[in-house]
Amino acid sequence: ADHQTKYFDRSSVPNPERSQWLPDGRVNAAFVSLARNEDLRDMVQSVQRLERRFNHKHHYPWVFLNDEEFNEEFMRRINETASGPVEFGVIPKEHWQMPETVDLQKMHDNWNKLKENDILYADSESYRHMCRFESGFFYRHPLVKKYEYYWRVEPSVDFWCDLDFDPFAYMKQNNKVYGFTITVTEYPETISTLWENTRNFLKQHPDTLHPNNSLNFISDNNGETYNNCHFWSNFEIARVDFWESDAYTKYFDHLDKSNGFFYERWGDAPVHSIAAALFTDRDSIHFFNEIGYWHPFSGHCPLDEPTLAKCECSPYDSIDHNGWSCLNKYYDAFKIPYPANWNLYRG
Ligand code: GDP
Ligand code: MN
């Protein structure tokens, strides 16, 4: 076993220059969106909503990535909508390409099985490139790499509450590594062997497991099986260097070598979440309750009255009390008290 690859130590800062506060008190951070030209309308919606709720007061930059060139209209409309500087980047081919080791026959047989089970994106190759890119490559893009923190924003999302604080600053001040608003269970059919591969990785690299990990959030039997709980990564505020760490780099390589992103349909959400639960301190994970958020077709709306007063949602809109949600498990695993009026809204 490899006892050299260590877990992620959030107090160590490999790139001090990148991690400095800006002179105006902001964090060296940006919104990062992966999108296609045809996502323009839905992307403008997301940018507009986030600008109105938060960024019109801060003017944080936006980064847009695409596996093809963005067209003029896309860049013009986004530039008109964003209040901060905008950069557009193309993804290198090597980061959006099927490895030669993929057995195509085996892959298509598996896709057909997923299709028979009505799994979303069962036979989509591009969706798999997207999941693999978001798992292992987005943070290597030069436009993203220069930031300390990023906030992932997808097309067609909405923000339900006025934010009177800076989530980036909160993350940095409190030494947080990974922030989320929604946690749900993954479709097990899409990740049949993800946990098996994760366990093998841990056997080979036992020192990547953080001594104060949150394995109890993602497993109900001390690691024997995965309970499918994950943070919904279409919203994500995180430290770029977590993904650059030795532990995560080795983990992604290990997963990628098995070609499970292609044979199955591993999402970046369970991959990121498992990594966050295993390789970093449980205290570095943060639930942004105040950020009311919608991505089709689920949302999070805060329950407590002072927070809710700044929102245009109802707690009944929340997935948090639904059987798919892992928020109750999160509260239990992290020993966080339930909100006072939790029982009021229980289905
Ligand atoms: P879902 O949220 O899982 O249903 O998947 P989405 O269709 O929203 O895709 C996730 C993210 O990846 C979004 O930001 C999309 O714009 C982006 N995306 C998905 N497929 C592609 C693709 O083929 N090319 C590019 N450039 N972006 C993609
Ligand atoms: Mn989406």
TrEMBL record:
It is found in: Endoplasmic reticulum. It comes from the Eukaryota. Pfam families: Glyco_transf_15. Keywords: Endoplasmic reticulum, Glycosyltransferase, Transferase. GO terms for biological process: cell wall mannoprotein biosynthetic process; protein N-linked glycosylation; protein O-linked glycosylation via mannose. InterPro entries: Glyco_trans_15, Nucleotide-diphossugar_trans. The keyword 4Fe-4S does not apply. The active site is at 236 (nucleophile). One of its GO terms (molecular function) is alpha-1,2-mannosyltransferase activity. Its main location: endoplasmic reticulum. One of its GO terms (cellular component) is endoplasmic reticulum. PANTHER family: ALPHA-1,2 MANNOSYLTRANSFERASE KTR1. Belongs to the glycosyltransferase 15 family. This is Alpha-1,2-mannosyltransferase.
